[in-house]
Amino acid sequence: MAPGRSAIGVDIGGTHIRAARVSEAGAILAITRTASARDPERALDAVIAAIRAVDADDAAAIGIGVPGRVDAATGAVLSGGYVDLSGVALRARIEALFGRPVAIDNDCGMALVAEAAVGAARGLRNVVMLTIGTGIGGALMEGGRLLRGRRTAGQLGHLVVETEGRPCVCGKRGCVETTSSGTALGRLIAGAGLAAGTTAAELRRRAEAGDPAATGVLRAWALPLRAAIDSLAAALDPDIVLLGGGLGAEAAAAVAALPAQPSWYPCRIAAAALGDEAGVIGAAHAALDRSAPLAAGSPPAAIGRSASAAAGSPPAAIPARAAGATAPRPKRAVLVNGVPASGKSGVARALAERTGWPVLALDVIKNPFLERIEGVDRPFNRLLGQASYAAIFATIGAAPPGSTFIVDAWFGFQPEAVLDAHIATAGLDQVAEIWCHAPPDTVAERYRSRAAARLPGHPGAAYADELRLLAARATPLGRGPLIAVDTTTPLDAGRLADWLTEMGF
């Protein structure tokens, strides 16, 4: 591909239509959003207006992600859901109007292309993705390529989870789209007597504070979704299941909050990293692939892979590096993990003194605010901890390639899906975990002895009994290489540093 080109990506959703001009490196150069419409001609008019709003001379092609079944080979829309464009000659009309090649595919397939290239599935080859929005979209990647079946594999929103459930637009009953989409969440909120307009994020905050109505709504929303994911895990054995779309992060958190169920088919579930921008980035990338001139005798490049990728190689980033280019230095983080009073901060400081790597710690970020804000209670302290958690990874994300950080936190205070999203958005290439532990009674006594010196908002000495139970059941994250440290014994920071060197740090 010639340098300096861009493409326009369009993502058609049930609520909004987004369009963006995207560089070959995956950077969004211009973006717009407009209301969607169920009427096909009105939706097409909105797509045309959105393309015009971001168009530029260097835009070489147009990609469009469409809800519903799409024959990617021909660009024909075979059926739709909330926005049904099956009666519209979409590719022909857009190509005739703008005079550029147009790639059309399922909207979730476009989002998965982006996540595999530069998002939460980067470097992974077997991925399932569901997009949670007005409806539920789906896409499958096997061996680094989108799985098509005969033409339209991946309609995951129409997995049946309730055989006697609500009618679905596809003609069946009880599809997961009818139980776990944004539309379904709205029905559950209304059925629980909660205020119209209550958001998923607000439900999560209320559930964490012990609100039974919010907890019940989230549970009813997430259980059928997990049933669908469990079936996909058993059938496909993926590296990861991504939840994207406007409600992807909240859906991932709601699933993570459900009671654990032992299974033969464990599967990592994570929020997608690119949010609402995944669809437009993937559509633009697919458009550039479609418009790229091919060498004589070369087969067409699969969506989401470099045209020159060797068989068996992972999905290419956007764009693939030129031959001979210097690979970027990896960005890394050492996650020093453990419950409160487990001794993790001492381990983090000792490792920093040994290596020179900076420490980012929850309390270090949070405490200056606690010192200045009056009337802080435990829920506010928790909210501030969540913001500090995000700030840590935002700081890492702003750092240059080659940076290494030590992150000191009890990572179990947030769902693992939140951590996975933070790791992805921070651009971390490698993580290792140091699990700090001590006997539960020791942890409780440590906390009790220092409780009076902690700032307002932290739990008092009475929390020690609760902490004892937490210490007894807490487990490591299992993200990357793992080493355990018993903090009741003398610390050998040199051994930790040597271990990290062996792990490639």
Structure, explained:
With 505 residues, the chain is α/β, with parallel strands linked by helices. It has 3 domains: 6-112 and 277-291, ATPase, nucleotide binding domain (Nucleotidyltransferase, domain 5), CATH 3.30.420; 120-273, 2-Layer Sandwich (Nucleotidyltransferase, domain 5), CATH 3.30.420.40; 332-502, Rossmann fold, CATH 3.40.50. It is 38% helix and 19% strand. It has 16 helices and 17 strands. It has helices at 40-54, 90-98, 107-118, 176-180, 182-191, 200-208, 212-236, 248-256, 278-291, 344-355, 362-372, 378-398, 416-425, 440-450, 463-473, 493-502; strands at 6-12, 16-23, 28-35, 59-66, 69-71, 76-79, 102-106, 127-132, 136-142, 145-146, 240-244, 269-271, 332-337, 359-361, 404-409, 430-437, 482-486. A 5-stranded mixed β-sheet has the order 3-2-1-4-7. Strands 10-9-8-11-12 form a 5-stranded mixed β-sheet, with helices on both faces. The protein has a 5-stranded parallel β-sheet with strand order 14-15-13-16-17, sandwiched between helices. The longest helix is centred in the middle third of the chain and has 25 residues, at 212-236. The chain is globular and about 75 Å long. Residues 293-327 have low confidence and may be disordered. Belongs to the ROK (NagC/XylR) family. Its EC number is 2.7.1.2. GO terms for molecular function: glucokinase activity. It holds the Pfam family ROK. Keywords: Kinase, Transferase.
